[in-house]
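FORM 7B: Structural annotation worksheet

SECTION A. Query
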Amino acid sequence: MNLPMSQSQQLQPRLRLFDATTLVVGSMIGPGIFLALPIMAGEVPSPGILIGLWVIGGLFTILGANCCAELAAKG
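SECTION B. Predicted structure
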């Protein structure tokens, strides 16, 4: 039985900063892991090198994010 919802009971469409951030992070990480990993795994000779490449890539990502944050803070 479907009862009509009053105005105060209806869902309110809102998107907070945390929600938007998790959407963007998820849309970047998801394709990066599922699309790039099989290509990389086929090109490197051992799993240890593959993990090392991911760690180095993560460090470069953190450095790039820090650079962008620093530039934004100065502006």
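SECTION C. Observations
Residues 20 and 26 are 10 Å apart (CA to CA). The mean pLDDT is 83.

SECTION D. Sign-off
Analyst initials: ____
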